[in-house]
Amino acid sequence: MKIVVLDGYAGNPGDLSWEGLEKLGTLTVYDRTPFDTAAIVERIGDAEIVYTNKIPLSRQVIETCPSIQFIGILATGYNIVDIAAAKERNIPVCNIPGYSTAAVAQLTLALLLEICHHVAHHSQQVHSGYWSGCDDFCFWDYPLIELAGKTMGIVGFGNIGRAVGQLARTLGMKVLATGSRPTEEGRAIGNYVDLDTLLRESDVISLHCPLFPENKEMICKESIAKMKDGAILLNTARGALIVEQDVADALNSGKLYAVGLDVAAVEPLPSDSPLLGTKNCLMTPHIAWATKEARQRLMDIAVHNLQAFLDGKPEHVVNP
């Protein structure tokens, strides 16, 4: 059995092992594959097993590669695969849920705390000698924000959203949430409300929902207008959940106090993005999922998914 990984570098730049997949077949790992249908088809060749992280597997690719029996996604989101075309060919598409919950929640909080205290900036000021020449025993260049008593609004209250909610409660914050399926576990962490109420009452709004056509660009001029003046927006979910120009405008006008982002609508971020150079816009390059521990879980589940398929009991199938 031939196994092809189309873009393995992001998940495993060399600090992890592909040994688990090597035990299940003849493995070929490409660090990167061009976003070109002909190149994708050529690299898949006659492989029965195909793994992808961000390389799109379109209907054309799936129909041009009749040997494919299993598609594994080295991520949770599966919008890069035409799952309907795969289903028509009886090809299970298996994703990897839950592997990065702790890591994404951790970075979400890191973005928020950096906005509240500007730790990196103040450390840089200390190392540049500013504190040594200060007339007072302390100084700060930005307003310092205490989160206790403030309200965190979480859009999408699945595993990651609830993990962020637990962290927010630990800091003394009130938690509001929207979610398609309210649960008792969720109710123990926060109060479920409609989206308009969440936008209106939250001091901090954090996005943790999947990207679907119906919520694409949900954070736009109209929804921002419903928020508190000076609200903080966090997005570690999907870049296309926000209209980047509208968010940049809201930052520059002061409607939004600050934004912390780990994702962009187009990645890598274009050099002409309206977010670049915008005041109080903190951005990281899609790294929330990428702790070594989370990536090891991803690798382990990828192997588990394939073994389950070979055993005739596929798991984490997104196109059953």
What do these coordinates show?
By secondary structure, the protein is α/β, with parallel strands linked by helices. The chain has 2 domains: 2-99 and 292-310, NAD(P)-binding Rossmann-like Domain (Rossmann fold, 3-Layer(aba) Sandwich); 101-283, Rossmann fold, CATH 3.40.50. Helices cover 33% and strands 15% of the residues. The protein is built from 12 helices and 12 strands. The protein has helices spanning 19-22, 37-44, 59-64, 83-88, 101-117, 119-127, 159-170, 184-187, 195-201, 221-225, 244-253, 292-310, and strands spanning 2-5, 26-29, 49-52, 70-73, 93-94, 151-155, 174-178, 191-192, 204-207, 231-235, 256-261, 281-283. The strands form 2 sheets. It has a 7-stranded parallel β-sheet, sandwiched between helices. It has a 5-stranded parallel β-sheet with strand order 2-1-3-4-5. Helix 10 links the parallel strand 9 (204-207) and strand 10 (231-235). Helix 5 packs across helix 7. The model has no long low-confidence stretch (mean pLDDT 97).
Give me a quick take on this structure.
This protein is an alpha/beta fold and 320 residues long.
Can you summarize the main beta sheet?
7 strands, parallel
Write the CATH architecture name of the largest domain.
3-Layer(aba) Sandwich
The number of domains:
2
How are the strands of the largest sheet arranged?
8-7-6-9-10-11-12
Broad CATH class of the largest domain = Alpha Beta
Q: Pairing-aware structural class of the strands and helices?
A: alpha/beta
N-to-C terminal Cα separation, in Å?
23 Å
In terms of quaternary structure, the protein is single chain
CATH topology of the largest domain: Rossmann fold
Q: How do the helices and strands follow one another from N- to C-terminus?
A: EHEHEHEHEHHEHEHEHEHEHEEH
Q: How many DSSP helices?
A: 12
Instruction: Indicate the mean pLDDT.
Output: 97
**Radius of gyration, rounded?**
22 Å
User: What is the H level of CATH, i.e. the homologous superfamily of the largest domain?
Assistant: NAD(P)-binding Rossmann-like Domain
Which stretches of 5+ consecutive residues score pLDDT under 50?
Answer: none
**Quick one: how many beta strands?**
12
Inertia-based shape: globular
Work out the helicity level: 25-40%
What amount of the residues lies in strands? 15-25%
